[in-house]
Amino acid sequence: MLRSDVINQFLKLYDDPDYLEVGVDEGTTFFAVDAPRKVAVDPEFKFALPPDPERAKGCTFHPVPSDSYFAQDPGRRYDLIFLDGLHTFEQILKDFTNALACIKDDGIIIVDDVIPSSYHASLPDLALSFELRRRIGQQDGDWMGDVYKIVFLIESYFQSHSFATVAENHGQLIVWKERRPAESLPARSVEQIGRLGFCDARLSDAFNLMPCSDILARCRRAYGL
């Protein structure tokens, strides 16, 4: 399933949704998302601003780092926030906690690229990832970094939220507000999470892989939508 296909399914839960995307790049996902009001945040958009008026209808563009955008605290709240920015654990942790502050009570946060496709794709250093790929003759351009660590952090420290990972694609984590029982919180220190590597990610059941339709049904039940 394409990123936008998943996002659009969850946006249909709401009558008049507000959408925020962090990490827009060329806009492939952003422009394919169907929402009346869309906000794009990226330090360097790979398309001309302003874009074609028809594509830009209902859209607002912020060519700044996500930290700068969230620092503005405009008071705007979103039904769905898609996080696909810099693929490091440190940055996704900042983006996720900032997203929690501006998501609506019945809103959904989607984190992209939580399942690394290969060892080199899991490296948080982009230059090192590309150099290793070159040396071993790999042609794919995947780079997920160590975003996967956010799953372990949410599982252990964000009891107020439930989550599951879409099984039909590269790994989109869906997070919604639904408290989990205490026994669902594995005992991990933040330091232990920071030391997790590729094998820990690929051999773990923490991602809670689930068909997108099942995750959608769980969100509906949790929010009474």
From TrEMBL:
Gene3D superfamilies cross-referenced by the UniProt entry: Vaccinia Virus protein VP39
One Pfam match: Methyltransf_24
InterPro entries in UniProt: SAM-dependent_MTases_sf
Highest taxon, organism lineage: Bacteria
Protein's recorded name: Class I SAM-dependent methyltransferase
